[in-house]
Amino acid sequence: MQYIFLPLLFLFSSCSFQEEVVEIPAPQEEPIKEDKIKPLVETFIPVSVIDGLIEMESENRGDYTVPAMVLISKGKFVMGDAIGVGDSSERPIHAVNINYEFFIGKYEVTFNEYDKFAKDTGRPLPDDGGFGRRENPVINVSFEDATAYAQWLSGKTGDNYRLPTEAEWEFVARAGSEDRFFFGDSTKDLKRYGWYWANSNETIQPVGQKLPNMWNVHDMIGNVWEWCQDWYVENYDNATNDGTPYSIKGEARVVRGGSWNDEENSMRLSIRTGYPPTVKMNDTGFRLVMDY
Questions:
Q1: Domains of the chain
Q2: How far apart are CA 66 and CA 36, in angstroms?
Q3: Cβ(68)–Cβ(58) under 8 Å?
Q4: Residue-wise pLDDT tens digits, 40-69
Q5: 8 A C-beta contact, residue 204 and residue 260
Q6: 121-130: long-range contacts (C-beta < 8 A, 24 or more apart)?
């Protein structure tokens, strides 16, 4: 808030001297000087990242890259649209108990990481859509491509990498929050945490540029939709409650998180949709889970 200090206006009453009225003019208002205006006070406070998180740093091993990961502890949460602003596909809300620990990618998989896989396996490089490669999240990769990448990286490292289940994804995205976003329900500070239509300049953006959630995971809001293991169904009537994927075969696989190409309403943590597992989109990528 700007505080503006104005000089006082002193009003003088008329005075009579020897029957002659002498009028004393009121002083003119002085222009407001810049040094009298207090600067705007910044009130934004980012979410606090939980202390004591266990993380694995990214490691470049030449023909492959070990991704940066964050260890996620066991926990319970309410999955779905608990505040009543979403679609029927986000309901009914239901309690989920994830009774195991797992690592999740601190960032979405990048072109730099995925291109090593493509070159090593003789696959064509995915089209970057003219957006650029390097540390941008990889796009134009299908569910099948993402799964093949996870299997390839597992073979390189000896660890078990895979796509997250839909429940795991939302558990991490919420990071303990029951709100529309992990930082609350207001869209006021959305631009600080995610890339979407209003601030993306109509393109993907390098990973990790926005503030993380409480579990120090970046880009769970926007940038690119992320593939999950589950087959997509129109609601949660038959959803699992233990973190495992919905496995009855359908026509599409779940994607979560919204993208650079979506409006702010599509950034809510409960939003979901599905794409055929062979489709490749310029707003869809993925991140990995590593079993602990």
A1: 55-291 (3.90.1580.10)
A2: 55
A3: yes
A4: 455 788 999 999 999 999 999 999 999 999
A5: yes
A6: 121/148, 121/152, 126/280, 127/280, 127/282, 129/204, 129/282
